[in-house]
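re the bet — no i am not wrong, look at it urself. input seq straight from the record:
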Amino acid sequence: MITAVYDTKPYDREHLQRASANRDVEWRFLEFRLTRETAPLAQGAHAVCVFVNDQLDRRCLEVLAAQGVKLVALRCTGFNNVDVAAAKALNLVVTRVPVYSPYAVAEHAVALLLTLNRKIHRAYSRVRELNFSLNGLEGFDLHGKTAGIVGTGKIGRIVAQILRGFGMKVLAYDPFPNRDWAAEQGIEYVDASSLAGFSDVLSLHIPLTPQTHHIIRAEILDLVKPGAILINVSRGALIDTKALIEALKTGRLGGVALDVYEEEEGVFFEDLSGQVLQDDDLARLLTFPNVLITAHQAFLTREALADIAGTTVANINALAQGTAFVEGSILT
């Protein structure tokens, strides 16, 4: 089964090859992203394997289908970058990784919170320059503060439970609340406005859909408790970046930690250290002392990568053998 892997990084190669050691998969690793322009390079492949910033619009999918590609295997959970309706019309099977270590993303969210609040990243840089001053490094106790969790799927629930372990009061918002879990953990569901107004920390754990696009926008930021910290490890476009910048400029937010960014395509996962950053909004965010950004690495643990590779290979093998795809992974 020939599979073209787009946007390949060294860790992708390692884990996919390990997961396919006893499978009949021939990998064609490509370092660039899949777009309508690069789709012809999948010629001869039975499947393509893609990631979060590949662009699978109708035209791209038409090119793939015309070349005989049968499967689009996403090595991620989200699928907002795929025209699923077009894929279905073209008889392309689209699969994703419905579950991988939720602890990877949840723990990264908490790591961002701790780092930003206690200014560990700034302290680290100072000490390396032999500056041992503590001026400007003041944080606050999480114990006794209120955390607001937006979305209580697997990752959101783990973050909530970790923060409960710090002695925080945890509020949650979800259109489909898990009340049994909340009662067991001592967590209260509230409406979105109350969550914004009462939370010292807001953490986003929801998928990107037309309904959640820019769910954090100017009118919501106006409701946020002054000085609150905002965490996003889900999808960048959940936040209106321009509104976020205004909230930072006015001092409404106490800090922001992002592992995702709405215009990250072509920037995140790349080494641009020798270039001029062309994204003015991202450049502006990087100037704020109370903004911490990582480049979409929340998933990057050995356990999560093994889970992702295992599910991806299993789905490719299912196509080759005519067997069932991994439960919950098929989108078309």
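see?? The chain is about 35% helix and 15% strand. told u. also The longest strand covers residues 253-258. so pay up
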